[in-house]
């Protein structure tokens, strides 16, 4: 990608449609991104502005976003000073990735005021800042305190530009002095040009070098000017080179023919960033739930260790019962203040020494051992039951951890969240509980013989597929004794060929914990032999009449078989 100063220069011509437009509403998508709803020339436009550390940008958007935020302070300030305002000017500062949007508005008593919205698109240092007409900061979406920063971004402080070395604006006559700043003998000419010019990216300089052949003191400026002139032909393009996507506002000769072209720069940015932004949100949401599941897993593991210790201790219970019986039988031999009693065990005819509490009577010592026996026996029974439940919980959580690795959509995150609420792992949130439930969608594949195969990637999908969607004569697949997805060929078993079985089994192995293994055992049987256990954890079933095949997961083959999602 190359959201450089040249790209910003091209993008501003597209944003001219917002000039004289009225800002009707400002909403916040996340901690760093805003949507400005602007009415201009009889049409509504949505301007997305983001200071995201990875996806900083600004452009018109046609995507739909949720606005989960209660208005934070920056949004309140933006609404107070900018809503209802008219956009007077959108200008780039030099050839840099800094833009000022000048807005005419009115204050609470109706007096005309001017505000400046400053966009700094600089990777992780990106920021969105609101100032008055004298460049006094009203607020910034990211605050910089004076302690550890070279400049301060706080309300009431005068705005200063990011600290950078002075550079030449390549769109002015300044660029003619560039050869005097380059040491042609030291090499790395591209790096030297980057250090001395505004708004250039390594991608753009590769194009300049491609046009120049190689840099000399005579051709360096003409090559830059020629490439900038060619770049006036704004045709948004996307290249896919070595599994890496590269976009630019104009075709680049050194990359050859573009893989995709767009009607507008905003359309290009919308397409490129929206999918990445959604995936980052999914990863973040999934990470939050993953940490909850991992904590629950560790909690159950500690509980299992404690229960095993209890069972080990309970192994001594029979000894204490025998002590009680022998004391009762030989009680007459106990003398006051005896610390122990040696008797013959009438079960084994061997001598046994019974420790005594010398402050208790023989009868009380016997009762003490009977009580310890009863206590350990009860603990053993309870620990055994709890350990069985803990093992089920551990298996369930292991399955959840596997499912978290395969999440690809927001709907799947929401399905995991609903399940965690149902299992009491997290508390419900009233506001979120009002959200309309999404219809469960399954992942669809097609075998080489054209048969449809459905895959559930989490417990909700698995339960829906196995207990509601599939029919009794459909074939069901699952990895043997390993966490994994439920897989169903939606065709009567009698019509399914061996090749289809092997391909569906491969999908079951691919969507399991054994994804990177070889010769994975996969069980398959008809749905009529698969049963949901009453009271069992989500996704848990029992099955009979199964057969087993051994398959090796194949990522490329799975991708080729994928046909989308279906309900």
Automatic annotation (TrEMBL):
UniProt signal peptide: none
Keyword set includes Transmembrane helix: no
InterPro entries: NFACT_RNA-bd (IPR008532), RQC_Subunit_NEMF (IPR051608), RqcH_bacterial (IPR043682)
Coiled-coil blocks: 283-317
Gene Ontology CC terms: RQC complex
Sequence similarity: Belongs to the NEMF family.
Superkingdom to which the source organism belongs: Bacteria
Domain NFACT RNA-binding: 443-535
Assembly notes: Associates with stalled 50S ribosomal subunits. Binds to RqcP.
Pfam families: NFACT-R_1, NFACT_N
Alphabetic keyword roster: Coiled coil, Protein biosynthesis, RNA-binding, rRNA-binding, tRNA-binding
GO BP term, pick one: rescue of stalled ribosome
Gene Ontology molecular functions: ribosomal large subunit binding; rRNA binding; tRNA binding
Task of the protein: Key component of the ribosome quality control system (RQC), a ribosome-associated complex that mediates the extraction of incompletely synthesized nascent chains from stalled ribosomes and their subsequent degradation. RqcH recruits Ala-charged tRNA, and with RqcP directs the elongation of stalled nascent chains on 50S ribosomal subunits, leading to non-templated C-terminal alanine extensions (Ala tail). The Ala tail promotes nascent chain degradation. May add between 1 and at least 8 Ala residues. Binds to stalled 50S ribosomal subunits.
Protein name, as recorded: Rqc2 homolog RqcH
């Amino acid at each position: 990608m190359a959201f450089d100063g040249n790209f910003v220069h091209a993008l501003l011509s597209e944003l001219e449609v917002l000039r004289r437009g009225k800002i009707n509403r400002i909403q916040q998508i996340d901690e760093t991104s805003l949507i400005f709803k602007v009415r201009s020339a009889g049409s509504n436009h949505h301007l997305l502005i983001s200071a995201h550390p990875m996806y900083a940008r600004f452009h018109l958007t046609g995507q739909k976003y949720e606005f989960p935020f209660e208005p934070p302070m920056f949004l309140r300030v933006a609404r107070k000073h900018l809503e209802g305002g008219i956009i007077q000017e959108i200008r780039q500062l030099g050839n840099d990735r800094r833009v000022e949007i000048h807005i005419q508005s009115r204050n609470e008593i109706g007096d005309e005021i001017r505000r400046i919205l400053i966009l700094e698109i600089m990777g992780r240092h990106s920021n969105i800042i609101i100032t008055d007409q004298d460049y006094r900061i009203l607020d910034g979406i990211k605050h910089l305190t004076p302690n550890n920063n070279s400049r301060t971004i706080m309300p009431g402080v005068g705005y200063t530009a990011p600290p950078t070395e002075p550079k030449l604006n390549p769109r002015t006559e300044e660029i003619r002095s560039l050869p005097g700043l380059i040491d042609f003998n030291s090499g790395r000419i591209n790096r030297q040009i980057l250090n001395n010019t505004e708004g250039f990216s390594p991608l753009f300089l590769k194009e300049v070098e491609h046009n120049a052949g190689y840099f000399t003191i005579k051709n360096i400026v003409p090559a830059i000017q020629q490439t900038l002139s060619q770049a006036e032909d704004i045709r948004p393009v996307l290249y896919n080179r070595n599994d890496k996507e590269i976009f630019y506002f104009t075709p680049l000769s050194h990359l050859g023919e573009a893989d995709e072209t767009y009607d507008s720069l905003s359309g290009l940015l919308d397409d490129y960033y929206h999918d990445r932004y959604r995936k980052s949100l999914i990863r973040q949401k999934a990470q939050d739930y993953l940490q909850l599941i991992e904590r629950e897993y560790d909690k159950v593991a500690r509980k299992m260790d404690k229960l095993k210790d209890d069972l080990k201790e309970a192994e001594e219970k029979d000894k204490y019962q025998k002590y009680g019986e022998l004391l009762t039988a030989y009680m007459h031999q106990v003398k006051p203040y005896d610390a122990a009693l040696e008797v013959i065990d009438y079960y084994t005819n061997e001598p046994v020494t019974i420790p005594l509490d010398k402050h208790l009577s023989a009868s009380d010592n016997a009762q003490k051992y009977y009580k310890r026996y009863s206590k350990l026996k009860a603990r053993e029974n309870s620990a055994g039951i709890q350990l069985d439940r803990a093992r089920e919980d551990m298996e369930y959580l292991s399955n959840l951890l596997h499912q978290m690795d395969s999440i690809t959509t927001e709907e799947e995150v929401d399905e995991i969240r609903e399940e965690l609420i149902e299992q009491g792992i997290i508390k419900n949130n009233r506001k979120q509980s009002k959200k309309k439930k999404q219809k469960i969608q399954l992942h669809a594949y097609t075998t080489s013989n054209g048969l449809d195969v459905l895959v559930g990637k989490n417990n909700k999908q698995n339960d829906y597929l196995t207990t509601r969607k599939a029919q009794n004569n459909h074939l069901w697949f699952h990895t043997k004794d390993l966490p994994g997805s439920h897989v169903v060929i939606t065709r009567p078993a009698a019509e399914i060929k061996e090749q289809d079985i092997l391909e569906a089994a491969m999908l079951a192995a691919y969507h399991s914990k054994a994804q990177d293994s070889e010769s994975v055992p996969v069980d398959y049987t008809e749905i009529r032999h698969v049963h949901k256990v009453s009271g069992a954890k989500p996704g848990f079933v029992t099955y009979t009449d199964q057969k087993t095949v051994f398959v090796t997961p194949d990522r490329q083959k799975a991708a080729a078989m994928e046909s989308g999602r279906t309900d």
